[in-house]
Amino acid sequence: MSYVGGVAAEQLKSIVERIERLEQDKTNLANDIRDVYAEARGNGYDTKTLRTIIKLRKMDESDRSEQEELLDLYMHALGMTVEATEKVEAELVS
């Protein structure tokens, strides 16, 4: 093995080339994912909602439950729940 300045040149070259291949694979995967989202959008699905579902499915059940409870709490505090909306609408009608 040849050393240049105390560095194993062939080993370093191998590592760099592996990283470059993986970066290319990552780019290809990102393009494939983008294509699937485009297909979903073409079939009438909301991609923002799909991304949220993908994010939620990655979560542990307890983490997802905690996040849902906090979201519900915050929405309730801001009057953004269905019940709060119906109450405001009822008050506006009367």
Could you characterize the architecture of this molecule?
The chain is mainly alpha-helical and 94 residues long. It folds into 2 domains: 1-58; 60-94. Helices cover 80% and strands 4% of the residues. It is built from 4 helices and 2 strands; from the N terminus they run E-E-H-H-H-H. The protein has helices spanning 9-42, 47-58, 61-77, 82-93; strands spanning 3-4, 7-8. Strands 1-2 form a two-stranded antiparallel sheet. The longest helix has 34 residues, at 9-42. 0% of the residues are buried. The mean pLDDT is 89.
Work out the number of β strands.
2
State the helix count: 4
Overall pLDDT level: 89
Please give the domain count: 2
* Class computed from helices, strands and strand pairing: mainly alpha
User: What is the 3D shape?
Assistant: elongated
Characterize the largest beta sheet: strand count, sense, and whether it forms a barrel: 2 strands, antiparallel
Element-by-element helix/strand order:
EEHHHH
Unreliable sequence segments? none
In order across it, which strands form the biggest sheet? 1-2
Distance, first to last CA:
87 Å
Helix content: over 70%
Strand residue percentage: under 5%
Computed over alpha carbons, the radius of gyration is 25 Å
Summarize the structure.
The chain is mostly helical.
Descriptors:
94 residues; mainly alpha; 2 domains; two-stranded antiparallel sheet; 4 helices; 2 strands; 4% strand
Write the layout of secondary structure elements.
Layout: E1 3-4, E2 7-8, H1 9-42, H2 47-58, H3 61-77, H4 82-93
Antiparallel strand pairs: 1-2
